[in-house]
Specification:
Elements: H1 12-23, H2 25-41, H3 46-58, H4 63-94, H5 103-109, E1 125-127, H6 132-135, E2 145-147, H7 156-159, H8 162-171, E3 182-183, H9 192-196, H10 200-203, E4 212-217, H11 220-226, E5 246-252, E6 266-273, E7 276-281, E8 293-297, E9 302-305, E10 311-315, E11 321-329
Parallel strand pairs: 1-2
Antiparallel strand pairs: 2-9, 3-4, 4-5, 5-11, 6-9, 6-11, 7-8, 7-10
Length: 330
């Protein structure tokens, strides 16, 4: 059977008694005296007092009062809560490890450029037969530089390839289980295991879709073996600090999409196999002062670009396999 639950009701007299009890005898006595004295003056009638009481009672249900409370709450949030929220978010965004590889967040929080790095730059500086002394004036410049045939003598240009790197990682225990940074760009390969599990036909692109990946070599045993095939670039300053990791980029056609690098130092990259076209663009706020441009590099060339300032992308000619080693100095 249906059950109806009614809400208990109270008479006006009961509610008035409860209010008087909460206010206390002394306070209600003073209110009664004030009420009687007001009536004696003749300036106010009993009906006017009752109307005033009714209006004060109904104010709790007045929508204008509710709107006022909402307004007060919003102002409180803006003045008090918003600064606290802003400081909290700023702290979390400042901790890059808290939001790993979140390029959208990094882009939103990057400093605005003053555009001095790109004014008047229309092409990279091309240097040949470079010595350390020749490179010194440009060592810490933001000007893009190509050093022709700078790494052509490295053993890496002869021996380093997909099969060598795959065998090295398979030989070193746990090398593919580390948390080294991995970038799959637009490819369907999501990890080093995927890269080194490719069939021979897919790895040489005789079958399947093009692929391009990059990763940080942060496993010490792997890095030590790789560095036997490529020394420190001979033209870098003697006092330049080098990181404990390098980066490998390899694959076909796609290359890297337009982006900035969030790294602490300047970048150098050795083109070991294949040709690569580079596309550089200034920060959006510099479009009215600077211009984008492109260039290409060949096997044996070294490229130096301040990728913290220059937006950059690259592509590889159709059918060519590109292999580069990248690191930092500062």
């Amino acid at each position: 059977p249906l059950q109806f639950i009614s809400r208990p009701t109270r008479t006006l007299g009961n509610r008035m008694r409860e209010v008087r009890e909460r206010l206390g005898e002394d306070f209600t006595a003073k209110l009664d005296a004030l009420h009687r004295n007001s009536l004696r003056t003749g300036l106010v009638s009993k009906q006017e007092l009752e109307e005033a009481f009714r209006k004060t009672r109904d104010v709790d249900h007045n929508p204008n009062r509710l709107n006022l409370l909402w307004l007060v709450g919003i102002i409180f949030f803006i003045l008090v809560a918003t600064p606290v929220f802003y400081e909290t978010i700023s702290f979390l965004l400042g901790v890059r490890c808290f939001l790993p590889n979140n390029y959208l967040v990094w882009e939103a929080t990057r400093p605005i450029s003053d555009c001095e790095f790109c004014k008047g730059v229309r092409a990279p500086l091309i240097l040949t037969n470079l010595t350390r002394e020749d490179f010194t004036p440009h060592a810490y410049s933001s000007l893009p530089i190509i050093v022709k045939k700078a790494v052509a003598h490295w053993p890496a240009q002869k021996y380093l390839n997909y099969a060598y790197i795959r065998d090295l990682y398979e030989r070193v225990p746990g090398a593919m289980e580390t948390d080294c940074q991995f970038l799959h760009f637009n490819s369907d390969l999501k990890s080093l295991r995927d890269v080194f599990a490719l069939s021979p036909e897919r790895s040489n692109l005789s079958q399947g879709a093009p692929w391009f990946v990059g990763w940080s070599v942060c496993q010490p045993a792997v890095l030590a073996e790789l560095r036997k095939l490529y020394p420190r670039p001979h033209f870098l300053p003697v006092d330049a600090e080098m990181p404990h990791t390098d980066f490998i980029l390899m694959g076909y056609e796609q290359g890297a999409v337009m982006h900035l690098d969030y790294i602490p130092r300047l970048m150098w990259q050795a083109q070991l196999k294949g040709n690569k076209s580079w596309f550089l663009a200034p920060a959006p706020e510099c479009d009215h002062q600077c211009q984008p441009f492109s260039f290409y590099v060949e096997p044996g060339d070294a490229v130096l670009v301040d990728t913290r300032l220059w937006y950059h992308a690259n592509t590889i000619p159709k059918g060519q396999f590109s292999l580069t080693v990248q690191s930092e100095y500062g």
